[in-house]
Amino acid sequence: MREEATAFVPGHVTGFFSAHPADDPTKAGSRGAGLTLTDGVDVTVEPATETTVVLDGTEIDVEPVATVLETLDVTARVEADSELPLGAGFGVSGAMALGTALAANRVFERKLSLNELVTIAHGAEVQAGTGLGDVVAQAHGGVPIRLEPGGPQDNKLDAIPSRARVEYLSFGELSTAEVLSGDTEALTAAGKEALSRVVEEPTLSSFMYASRLFARDAGLLTEQVMETIADVSAVEGQASMAMLGETVFALGSGLSDAGYEPSVCATHPAGAMLR
Amino acid sequence: MREEATAFVPGHVTGFFSAHPADDPTKAGSRGAGLTLTDGVDVTVEPATETTVVLDGTEIDVEPVATVLETLDVTARVEADSELPLGAGFGVSGAMALGTALAANRVFERKLSLNELVTIAHGAEVQAGTGLGDVVAQAHGGVPIRLEPGGPQDNKLDAIPSRARVEYLSFGELSTAEVLSGDTEALTAAGKEALSRVVEEPTLSSFMYASRLFARDAGLLTEQVMETIADVSAVEGQASMAMLGETVFALGSGLSDAGYEPSVCATHPAGAMLR
Questions:
Q1: Regarding the domain delimited by B1-275, which CATH topology (the fold level of the hierarchy) does it fall under?
Q2: Pairing relation of β-strands B156-159 and B144-148?
Q3: pLDDT tens across A236-268, in order?
Q4: For chain A, where are the E strands, in sequence order?
Q5: What pTM value is reported for the model?
Q6: A30, B205, B248, B274: which could join A132 in a potential S-S bond, CB 3.0 to 4.6 Å?
Q7: Closest Cα in chain A, distance from residue B179 (Å)
Q8: Which of B161, B270, B274 sits opposite A270 (nearest CB)?
């Protein structure tokens, strides 16, 4: 047993998605597309007699992290340092689950494969209702397109072969669990439409365009987000809403050009990795 | 049309493999496992009226590169700068094909997806007989396990969730085409055995062990390679032979510890990427 191990998991903003429930959480998930981000979460795991989870210095309960540790049959102290806010559409809970799986596998020498670890983290996230597609996207890196839902044994991924500077600005939280438990018919229809657009033309431009249409048609835009996206469009920029958070993300310098003071990062060329 | 674009593709040493021919080169390929390397190839593509390919300052013919450009229906000047020798088992031809596909897609705004570009490069490489699994491994990054052969539409990948320092030393070339056109029965049997060992325990240790057994049982070891691997074993290090080249690679400081003066790099956490 090692003393500790640390994994970095990129953040992930989903531009559009459709939900695909299933009885088995490792087969459930979402179709859609998003950007993985150089801003992300460092997760350090060390053996402990009792499990505790700390995010940016504060002890919290993160159900998918607890589930991952139980699945690996270990107790540990998990310390996460996040450059991104929790609950605002950046996949922080997915990052914590996946980072815990990677680091715990190393510390406790569990000898699982990457796909097995991703499956465990994805299933834990879906079961908790905190996300449907972040984990598999974060394991892939780049600008992943989720063509088929589920963990690595079942899903099908492609990607947009591009990199970009990314700006983002968060106004607050939206509950993924709440949105997903409501009426998702309009959302699913809009998600399918957006996916077929991006499959037809896998470029960043078409991704941003499809994401904006999706946010509107799925009825998820808040007043604040709508205004901000309009401000970016007014200066010829491309912005959309992170699913699911009251968060706007833009390519290049879209938000700065519109007079905002956003956080700045870039698409992350790699998936989650041990430090 | 852009002026030029550059892609970086990691090197790839295969530890073991089995060959899986098929009429369609995008479905043919290999099962096996290997290490992608931080040492790799930068490929720059710029539009030109006639196609030329330059590797480290010297004009050469690289069939898979020509095929990729033809498939994308373009003519271009392709300049590759490689940290690795050609023909010595580092996947340099695969890297040139994949880098050309990524960079040409960008320069000529072909709007293809990542999977489509990988399929084109993989098919071109298989058709030329210069490699069977490097391209899909190089697109993935890390320490990929090729569970099923072929391009992204057909194959199935997993990975060993580890990183390592890697040392390597090349004594010369081996012709992939020549080995693959010979009797491959022993090789295929040894490749299957090695893969099931690594699937059972996806760790770097078991990968190196399986690779050594494979090199021996497939009858591919040269005198020089055998001696060098033995020297590394004698100092408790782990080394094996790169498939296919007269090249030895080792984890950590295996070759240095044995008194050699190897090149030093590490596993590459990401797949091929635009610069």
A1: Ribosomal Protein S5; domain 2 (3.30.230)
A2: antiparallel
A3: 999 999 998 999 999 999 999 999 999 999 999
A4: 5-20, 29-47, 52-55, 58-59, 76-82, 144-148, 156-159, 165-172, 239-241, 246-251, 263-266, 273-274
A5: 0.96
A6: A30
A7: 31
A8: B270
